[in-house]
Design a protein that fits this description.
Strands 1, 4, 5, 8, 9, 10, 13 and 14 form an eight-stranded parallel β-sheet that branches. A two-stranded parallel sheet has the order 2-3. It is 25% helix and 22% strand. With 318 residues, the protein is of the alpha/beta class. Helix 2 packs parallel to helix 4. The protein has eight helices and 16 strands. 39% of the residues are buried.
């Protein structure tokens, strides 16, 4: 007798709950992936992820218990994800067209469902618990096609949309300048003018983080951290590299906000790190579900970075 197979509709499969993640023991000293995307386009390549593969990345993250958090929230220690899940940070460099594209239809515009923003929004609708968080490192004065997503008529509208939807905007210099090649005056202009141009469209918006083009630091790191040019002030709470693997926990003594490593979002790197944490679950940040406590394995209190953000307290897990 042939056993009967139960075949569920795709819609039910997509809405099915993730595995019982709360069974993972909390470890808020574990490492966190900061994924670094570039083009969302065709064909797949060294700096390009296809829309289909990007959707598949989100599905894998969901199924394996990862939940996006805003980078600024990570920096502030505001890690509010369910117990048993792991924060992941999604970043997008270079403001290329496939990251955020509008389609014009009948005199109106809508987000291209095959752009990164469209894919993220659709996935969040299908999986509300996954959330809608990402940081876009934009180039306000780059040559096309990387100048603010390459639709000049909608530059301001797009930046306002990102900010209104809870996405973050980060500094990537004015036009992707390799900061190691320039002196102090040019470095500061690159960063201050990028801040000023974004604020033209989103008044009062501060670019809190900087993603270094090519991962190149200026000769003096202080030039990149804070400064003022012609009355425009910039201050970066974190500086992101272009490689280096998973980042230390925000609560670990090894965390360095000015040298944050990232994982380049290509198939080999994503698969490696997902596999690594499957094989080494003790190395992975796992939330206790309480944003006001930092749960650490017993005996590891001395590894915690001090001072903790205001209002947080340490809990040792048996």
């Amino acid at each position: 007798m042939t056993p009967t197979r139960l075949i569920l509709p795709l819609s039910l499969l997509l809405l099915a709950p993730a595995p019982a993640l709360a069974q993972r023991p909390a470890n808020e000293l574990g490492r966190v992936m900061i994924l670094e995307y570039h083009k969302i386009d065709h064909p797949e390549g060294r700096w390009t992820r296809t829309p289909g593969n990007f959707r598949a990345d989100l599905q894998r993250l969901w199924e394996k218990g990862y939940r996006p958090v805003a980078l600024n929230d990570l920096l502030d220690g505001k890690i509010n994800v369910p117990a048993g899940t792991t924060p992941v940070v999604l970043t997008f460099d270079d403001s290329s067209p496939g990251q955020f594209r509008y389609l014009e239809k009948n005199g109106a515009v809508e987000v291209d469902p095959d752009s990164a923003v469209g894919i993220l929004e659709a996935f969040a609708r299908e999986h509300p618990e996954f959330g809608l968080k990402a940081t876009f490192y934009v180039l306000p004065a780059a040559d096309p096609p990387n100048r603010l997503f390459n639709q000049p008529a909608y530059e301001g509208q797009k930046l306002q949309y990102l900010a209104s939807r809870g996405f973050e905007i980060g500094n990537h210099t004015l036009w992707h300048a390799n900061l190691s090649h320039y002196g102090e005056e040019t470095v500061r202009k690159q960063l201050a003018e990028a801040q000023e141009r974004i604020a033209r469209y989103v008044p009062g918006y501060r670019l809190r983080t900087l993603a270094l083009p090519m991962g190149a630091y200026p000769r003096e790191i202080g030039w990149a951290v804070r400064g003022s040019v012609n009355g425009v002030t910039y201050q970066h709470d974190a500086i992101l590299q272009v490689a280096g693997g998973a980042a230390p926990s925000r609560f670990s003594k090894s965390f360095d906000a000015l040298r944050l490593p990232r994982i380049q979002a290509v198939e080999s790197e994503i698969s490696y790190w997902l596999g690594y944490f499957d094989k080494h679950p003790e190395a992975r940040f796992v939330s206790d579900g309480d944003p006001l406590t930092v749960t650490v394995p017993k005996g590891q209190r001395e590894v915690v970075r001090h001072p903790l953000p205001q209002g947080l307290r340490i809990v040792e897990r048996e």
